[in-house]
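Question (not urgent): is this output format expected?
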Amino acid sequence: MPDSAGSIPFYYDRRGNRLEGWAATTPPQGGHLLWLRGPGEVAAQVCAAGPAYRQWQLPADPGGWTHVLHSPEPAVSSVVRPLLDLLRNVVTLPAPAAVDVALAVDWYKRPLDGVDPYSWPNSQAGELISAGKYRYRDAPEPQATAGRTLAGLICQVIGAHPVLGRAELVLDVPGHDTERVSFGSRLAATVAVGRGLAMVRTRARSAYRPESKNLDRAGRPQALTGQFLVPPEVQGRQVIIVDDVIRSGDSMSAVAQAAREAGAAAVSGICGARTMKG
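Got this back:
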């Protein structure tokens, strides 16, 4: 077992987590052991990127490590190593229903000890969303600049992730008012261009619906059930849903369910930022 991962136990946050650390050791049986300190979603992504990995029994005193995986390969591969480094910097989200893997570039805010949460500064991703979605809502040029910058960050994450990088098509999450193309939909289109992928527009059954953030937590899934239609072009394809911000994940889940019903073979999701509240 490698040196202790820390004296403070790993705290699983249902809103999202980063990979806090990893290490590799060589067991007597051969191959290598990959030690992780992070959520189960990270371990699942590693296994998806490196199919040779299998769960290994943690020792009675794991020293702060949360998962250990065994691979017959002699060392961490050139595919898995960049993924591990990536997952230390982005936020791995508990995947919404019908989504295989979900990530956020960052949290919306940067928590500061001793500071009122309402005064926490925005992260880079949060600031870009705030600018594009609210501050420059009626100013096309600065709004587009914020959107392109955020799309660039998202494209970097997709390109570095061996699972998200397999996506063949991009889906958007329609805004609450279909008369106006939302910042999130524009962002999805820009990511599609940046990745050289086709954009498939998700259609909303209702011309207008209440904004998800204005619905109570219990009522969101019901309000979004059956709201979206995904064209048949996704049949048998791997798709990625792109949105600006995720709060509960219910909107992404509803689009993912529509994609599954249309025959999508795999569905992943990515957003610019995860809100501090669920």
